[in-house]
Amino acid sequence: MSKNLVLALDIGTTSAKAVIFEKNGKLVVEAERMITSHYPEQEWVEQDPIEIELASRGAIQDAMKKGNLAPEDLSAMGFSAAMHSLICVDENFNPLSNAIIWADGRSLEQARELRASIAGDEIYANTGLPNHPMSPLSKLLWMKETNFEPYHKATYFMSAKEYVIQKWFGVRKIDYAMASATGLFNMKAFHWDAQALSLSGIRYPQLSEIVPPTEILTGLDPAIAEEMGIPVDLPIAIGSADGQLANLGSGAISPGEVAISAGTSGAIRQMTKGFQVSDEQEVFCYAFTDELSIIGGPTNNGGIALQWLKDLIEYDGSFEELTAEAENVALGAEGLLFIPYINGERAPVWRQEAKGNFFGLSITHKKEHLVRAVLEGITYNLFHIGIALEKQAGETKRIYVNGGLARSPLWVQMLADVFGKDVYLAESHHSAAWGAAWTALYATGQVDSLEEIKQNIPIEAIIKPNMDNHEVYKKNFEKYVGLAKDLLKYF
Predict the structure, then answer these.
(1) 389, 349 in Cβ contact below 8 A?
(2) pLDDT tens sequence across 377-415
(3) Which of 16, 83, 121, 361 could cross-link 55 (Cys pair, CB 3.0–4.6 Å)?
(4) Residue 254 in contact with residue 297, Cβ under 8 Å?
(5) For the whole model, what pTM was predicted?
(6) How far apart are CA 211 and CA 231, in angstroms?
């Protein structure tokens, strides 16, 4: 088995996952270490950088042991990570703050003011990141305006991924995608944006060196390598952000091919050449490589809405059992509509202050109707973002889906029916990890192109839409959009 396998580390919102694949995309072993989110105040969401780094180490160590693998079995490794986190660190790279993650809404006022300003329009036009509290730029503005002590003491500012890389390799480097996700990266010039830095009050030397996703990291700490059970000289590609890599790992890299990630949160994205933004600021555009960008929109409300309902009704069964409850309810949930903005919302409305809503509740509705309505609401929201995406990227022709919700046959069929498109379901739901692994294979010359991944994605099923259902969903969606638009006036 020598040098036959490739390792990916995917640092997500809820956990760090180590996933090991064969070079054809077949899953060999996976391991996961959970990461705790802290909520010190209303709208604040933080994680401990030290815990993130230790969870990352531990996940790799667990995967190597679980698979009974030797260091020499690995040929390369790649990184994937969630976007939009921000950590203040001192000159010795010790954290002065927790990692403020994408879900944090403390910079609502700063984001709102920026969105209403000429400077905000100019920065969006240059960076491709809509003005929203998820943005590290908004977080920096909040730090500056509230005299946040770690901001004033910080020597450097980093994402969680950069923090892990610095601890392991002793370098400050950030890939194109993670840089794009800060709101500080000028996509037209491919360097840090002077206007955004000036506004946030930070300087170029406080940010990391920007490199392509194929950059090979060297100088891995021997003690850390030994602890994880990997070779100290293993070629390790810096990789990219989870969104770009989920598209790559699912095969959604050609025009008209859309990837939908549906985990705790969700997103719908399409690869595109070059850089483009929308006048309405409905979608983002982030760099991936020198030539490829990703355009799309994220939602705060994926599986977290189902988790919320499960907790609310004190349902003791599994998620599979919960979603099965909805199978006996006709589509449309007998007139019940759910606006899924329970966690605020990003695309397409970009309103952190938005709230969720059940509309059309009747005395005849039971818990299974609520479940169906929540699943449909999540799907309508993705479709709503998809319409905004089509304005920029053209018609959606096929959909590749990944994430926890993709394990629900009911929901995947619902997705096909709402969009009216074929849905391709990969054998492995670790699309971002496979994208990171493939990037490492490409960076080390073991494969010839990124596009070649299409021949190395084991597909479990192709789900065809029921077009009769699609027509019903189209009418329900019109009501959903009208209701969502009306409700936004009150937030």
Answers:
(1) no
(2) 999 999 999 999 998 888 999 999 988 899 899 999 999
(3) 16
(4) no
(5) 0.92
(6) 23
